[in-house]
Structure to design on (441 residues):
């Protein structure tokens, strides 16, 4: 019975990791396709396609943006919405809910955000490009777990959980950086309108509203749209809306089990009609079971379960394909060895590693945190380098920090080069330090 409970607890984590790993390979394929196309005879068509403009609105109230902006401001808002759902779930009942479990990945995340930003700032301290200091801060969990999956069952679950918790924590840090530092001129009227919609969402949660359509209409039609026009980046609305989603059930586990058994017993007592169709009484019980099952689930987990594959297998690949295309024609060594490129490259490659491992070492030395039993400090070296894979969030912040195509190109080169090298080093270190299949660490 105890093993069954443990298996039940770990099943969502294993499912999450499996999906993230597969998505990491798809993300890599889309980034590679973008690179190939942007350096082929189709390069001009590729770049012009993303500048195609279309609008949404009615009766004279329209928002006109390019396809590239709709992807980065619209589709990525859903990405941040799912990040917010994952963050709330982790805080309510996951790794971040227990101070003992949360201390090490949170500390590692803070170190892994501050040191890369500092390294970038040192390279660009007297340059207008200093605005790009947030680019090397966050970890791309899909890529990182994709690389971990190459090592198969040699990787302890604790390493995957540590890396996932770290990435979710520094995603939150990146969202805060976007909210406070990467904003345009702020419209306080639209910001106040967004605040009103946020209050309505929180009030709905407090009053027990569980209909996801309610949160979708107010979150997208109200909060997101208000933020889009306010100057505060619209993706922040995605996280805020997620935090308002209810994370509690209408019925406890014991009550659910008792009522479900009663319904099943009633269903079994109805004589079968020897056809493939259900009797009306059977259909009535099936409907009651559906209602009961929905009451035993939380809107937060229901939404996360439904949207997670959409984000992993549609939104993130589309984002990668639209943002990773770098035309290398005419790019010289001088273009590569710029303060922007080197600041991002060294920030992600060395800053992440030193920040994650260094802060973890301090916390472990002071006994403020403990390593999981099946994870060694040498394993942390590999995880520290995997944390330097900053693909999705780094490219996203690049488009917020810079408007010059030349600066964006330099930032993308630094991001892609560091992410690939960090992934390779992290893989080789873990391959060397992890036990062979069947051995214990």
């Amino acid at each position: 019975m105890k093993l069954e409970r443990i298996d039940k607890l770990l099943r969502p984590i294993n499912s999450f990791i499996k999906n993230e790993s597969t998505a990491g390979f798809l993300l890599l394929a889309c980034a590679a396709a973008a690179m190939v196309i942007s350096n082929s005879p189709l390069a001009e068509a590729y770049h012009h396609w993303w500048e195609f403009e279309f609008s949404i609105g009615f009766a004279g109230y329209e928002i006109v943006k390019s396809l590239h902006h709709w992807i980065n401001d619209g589709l990525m808002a859903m990405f941040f919405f799912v990040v917010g759902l994952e963050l709330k779930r982790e805080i309510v009942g996951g790794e971040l809910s227990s101070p003992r479990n949360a201390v090490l990945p949170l500390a590692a995340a803070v170190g892994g955000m501050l040191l890369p930003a500092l390294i970038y700032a040192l390279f660009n301290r007297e340059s207008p490009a200093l605005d790009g200091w947030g680019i090397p801060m966050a970890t791309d969990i899909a890529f990182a777990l994709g690389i971990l999956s190459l090592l198969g069952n040699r990787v302890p679950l604790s390493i995957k959980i540590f890396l996932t918790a770290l990435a979710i924590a520094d995603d939150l840090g990146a969202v805060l950086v976007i909210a406070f530092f990467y904003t345009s001129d702020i419209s306080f009227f639209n910001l106040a309108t967004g605040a009103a919609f946020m209050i309505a969402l929180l009030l709905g949660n407090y009053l027990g509203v569980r209909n996801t359509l309610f949160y979708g209409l107010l979150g997208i039609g109200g909060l997101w749209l208000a933020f889009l026009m306010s100057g505060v980046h619209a993706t922040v609305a995605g996280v805020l809306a997620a935090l308002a989603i209810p994370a509690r059930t209408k019925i406890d586990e014991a009550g659910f089990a008792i009522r479900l058994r009663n319904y099943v017993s009633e269903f079994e007592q109805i004589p079968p009609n020897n056809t493939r169709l259900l009797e009306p009484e059977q259909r009535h019980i099936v409907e009651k079971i559906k209602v009961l099952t929905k009451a035993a689930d939380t809107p937060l987990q229901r939404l996360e379960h439904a949207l997670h594959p959409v984000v992993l297998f549609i939104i993130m690949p589309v984002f990668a394909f639209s943002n990773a295309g770098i035309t290398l024609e005419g790019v010289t060594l001088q273009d590569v060895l710029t303060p922007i490129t080197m600041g991002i490259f060294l920030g992600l490659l060395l800053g992440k590693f030193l920040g994650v491992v260094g802060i973890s070492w301090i916390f472990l030395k002071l006994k403020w945190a403990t390593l999981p039993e099946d994870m060694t400090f040498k394993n942390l070296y590999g995880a520290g380098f995997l944390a330097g894979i900053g693909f999705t969030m780094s490219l996203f912040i690049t488009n917020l920090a810079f408007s010059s195509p030349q600066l964006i190109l330099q930032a993308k080169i630094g991001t892609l080069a560091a992410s690939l090298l960090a992934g390779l080093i992290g893989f080789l270190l873990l391959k060397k330090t992890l036990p062979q299949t069947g051995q214990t660490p």
Q: What stands out?
A: The radius of gyration is 24 Å. Residues 2-182+233-248+298-433 form a domain with the Na+/H+ antiporter like fold fold (CATH 1.20.1530.10). The chain has two domains: 2-182+233-248+298-433, 253-293.
